[in-house]
From TrEMBL:
Domain of life: Bacteria
Family classification: Belongs to the LysR transcriptional regulatory family.
One Pfam family cited in the UniProt record for this chain: LysR_substrate
Keyword Metal-binding applies: no
Domain HTH lysR-type: 1-59
Protein name listed in UniProt: LysR family transcriptional regulator
Length: 295
């Protein structure tokens, strides 16, 4: 019978493409990872990888096994996380990570619900990128991360999630920009101008390629600064809810692109470690998040 260590080593080598990278991911030595994979191969009776230079190329049988092995690995991690969560369910502090896509109204409502139902609990709101938020979840320094959905079957880290709803995005610029006065605006017209890109979107370029269009891109980590810069030059893709005050004050305008005749939107998810939903306060918190977008 295979062991959890063997399955984890196999999945890591398959995903990373080398024993060295898999060892770094698992915080183990290359020798240990290789021994686990070798023991798994001996049990199965056939090789899983072929070494080509420094790369570990999966065999056809390894490719067929991967998906099932990934599910088993996730289930094992879920069981472990849930088991450890049961040791301490008393909550004094709730830490929530969020990025620019998260509506402020949603966060305000969540703050009010927690304060009303759990007045003894302190709430910390941390503006973080997706990568930073995932690391905080896994090190138990954050409880929930409100982040965009990447369209993947599995999260990139050992966490699970709950779908909250869709967040509409759009293209924005200053009122005096030539782009704003273009009668037949196309994506190719945007190539001639500077694009400001919020740092939170840079982590998502594997899926959200539409957010990175021009060859001249300025990445800005502070979204208030991004909007101030936008008043003087360039354009940006941003959530509509975030840009609404600037539009209402006449400081920025929304662009209408010919190729995009329907709404652009990102899915917003609440990410958390396995077992969190079994803790009463976090179960309620996830319910409140779902209720916000169902109204």
């Amino acid at each position: 019978m295979h062991t959890f260590e063997q399955i984890s080593a196999f999945v890591a080598v398959f995903e990373q493409g080398s024993y060295n990278k898999a060892a770094l991911q698992l915080s183990k030595s290359r020798t240990t990872v290789r021994e686990h994979v070798k023991a798994y191969e001996d049990m199965l009776g056939y090789p899983l990888f072929q070494i080509v230079g420094k790369q570990a190329k999966p065999t056809e049988k390894a490719t067929q096994l991967y998906r099932r092995a990934k599910i088993v690995e996730k289930q094992n991690r879920s069981l472990y996380a849930q088991s450890t969560t049961l040791f301490d369910t008393e909550t004094h502090t709730v830490t929530i990570c969020y990025d620019v896509i998260t509506p402020i109204e949603l966060m305000m409502q969540l703050e009010q619900e927690i304060a009303k139902n759990y007045p003894e609990v302190s709430i910390h709101w941390l503006h973080r990128t997706r990568k930073e938020a995932m690391n905080l979840l896994l090190t138990d320094k954050a409880d929930i991360a409100l982040m965009p959905y990447l369209g993947q079957l599995f999260a990139e880290r050992e966490v699970t999630w709950k779908a909250i709803g869709n967040i509409e995005i759009g293209c924005f610029t200053r009122p005096t920009s030539p782009l704003a006065n273009h009668d037949d605006l196309k994506i190719e017209d945007l190539l001639l101008d500077t694009q400001y890109l919020t740092e939170n979107f840079t982590d998502l370029n594997t899926m959200l390629s539409a957010t990175k269009v021009t060859p001249k891109v300025h990445v800005v980590s502070n979204n208030d600064l991004l909007c101030e810069l936008l008043k003087h030059q360039g354009w940006a893709v941003m959530p509509k809810h975030y840009m609404k005050p600037y539009i209402e004050r006449g400081e920025l305008v929304a662009l209408s692109l010919k190729e995009l005749n329907k709404q652009m939107a990102f899915g917003l998810n609440a990410f958390y470690c396995f077992g969190k939903e079994d803790v009463p306060i976090f179960s309620k918190l996830l319910d409140w998040l779902s209720e916000y977008h169902s109204r």
